[in-house]
Amino acid sequence: MKSNAVFHTIDDFDVKGKCVLLRVDLNVPIQNGVVVDTLRIERILPTVRALSKRGAKVVLLSHLGRPKGKIVPDLSLRAVVPPIEEALNQRIAFSEDCVGNAAASVIAELEWGKVALMENLRFHPGEESNDEDFASALAELGDIYVNDAFSCTHREHASIERLAKKLPSAAGLVLRNELETLKQILENPARPVFAIVGGAKISTKLDIINHLMKKMDSIAIMGAMANTFLLAKGFAVGTSLVEMSMVKKAGAILAEAEKEKCRILLPEDVVVATELRKNVSVKTISISAVPADRMILDVGPRTVALLSENLRASKTLVWNGPLGAYETTPFDMATIAVARIAADLTHEKKLLSIGGGGDTIAALHRVGLNADFSYVSSAGGAFLDWLGGKKLPGIIALATR
Q1: Backbone CA torsion sign across 225, 230, 233, 234
Q2: Element (H, E) at 147
Q3: Which of these is catalytic: 251, 381, 388, 389?
Q4: Are 311 and 338 in contact (CB under 8 A)?
Q5: Which residues, at least 6 apart from 114, have a Cβ–Cβ distance to it below 8 Å?
Q6: Side-by-side strand order, sheet with 283-286
Q7: Alpha-helix residue ranges (DSSP H) falling in 217-348
Q8: Domain 10-174: homologous superfamily in CATH
Q9: CA 157 – CA 160 distance, rounded (Å)
Q10: Section 21-31 average pLDDT
Q11: Residue 358 catalytic?
């Protein structure tokens, strides 16, 4: 062992002649039996290739969807085999089960340096219940455990938390890179640091905002969650989505941000409509003039200009959540406009841009800007928990003991 890190990495182990259980996240979108987005497959390639090159048997463990402990044919990981084979340019083995004789037989026949994929972990109820016996059955298959699924580390599941304690364990290349990047952002960022936090509900982002206001120089609160803050400031928001139970809390957050000397930015103008529908008639108005029969569905050009101004004045950006109802045209315009400005500043080496969270990833992917940010986290819930200052069970389990 040579690492002084809190957790070991794959460089700390001689994996030649060893069977490595590699926990990855292959929870990819599948339509008509075909994988339609290979981003998560591409993310696992560096670790798979590194282990394979060093002479290990590489056994991929993953979940897909929510089968709730039962075998659901449409959620079989067999559909993921072709794109993995194409990405690695080699055939991989597939096991009809992730434990027991079927899995052991596939692994026994696997050549050194080759790769096998086990069937969906969540076909067994013991995965999500973090069952001791299920984790032991997984551990029997390998010599070393490597977690390269940062996006799953917030879950206290058997293949994430309990299995890591049963074998010599390490972080994969992607997980290590993700942790180091996020740690740099939150602990030693280039300032000024600007956060954009969007999405629908304050209740799901409360921990994030509370944690970030102690770390950021300014935070833009956008998306539907901004409506609750606007209401707390006395603005009428028409029929917009609002969390009435969180209005007082929103006011308290604004007051606390002042104490922390963190500037909070809210929309100055908005795009409103009578309903959320594609190509519905819209109107852009000041935030002080929202009609009683309209709902806020995006931010307007003045707000985009405000965000752009702050981006240009910042050195680091953390972005989680869209600015409006981006899935529906034309309420994606502000998100796209600001994302392109952030991408341009990143290209010009003027901004370190970090995006993360499911909706953020989807929004950036939709306009082809994933590769234009400095780093886009592949994680959803884990990224949010990390930003909220929570301890991640999967990372704690990897800690050297």
Answers
A1: negative
A2: strand 144-147
A3: 381
A4: yes
A5: 52, 57, 58, 90, 92, 93
A6: 283-286, 269-273, 295-299
A7: 225-232, 247-259, 301-312, 333-347
A8: Phosphoglycerate kinase, N-terminal domain (3.40.50.1260)
A9: 5
A10: 94
A11: yes
Do the domains at 10-174 and 189-387 have one common CATH topology? Answer: yes
Could you identify the residue written with the tokens 């394979």?
52
Q: Which of 100, 238, 358, 389 is catalytic?
A: 358
311: tokens are 């981006």
How many angstroms separate the CA atoms of 258 and 263, rounded? 7
Report domain extents, the chain: 10-174, 189-387
Topology given in CATH for the domain delimited by 189-387: Rossmann fold (3.40.50)
User: Residue 9 carries which DSSP code?
Assistant: B
201 part of the active site: yes
| Chain centroid, CA 136 distance in Å | 28
Per-residue pLDDT at 369: 82
Answer whether residue 178 shows pLDDT above 90. Answer: no
Q: How far is CA 17 from the centre of its chain?
A: 33
The model's pLDDT over 260-313, given as tens digits with 9 standing for 90+, comes to: 999 999 999 999 999 999 889 999 999 999 999 999 999 999 999 999 999 999
Of the residues 165, 201, 340, 366, only one is catalytic, namely: 201
Question: Buried b vs exposed e over 257-270: b needs ≥16 C-beta within 10 Å?
Answer: beeeebbbbbbbbb
pLDDT surpassing 60 at residue 1 = no
Place 400 in a pLDDT band, splitting at 50, 70 and 90: low
Q: Which helix (H) or strand (E) holds 286?
A: strand 283-286
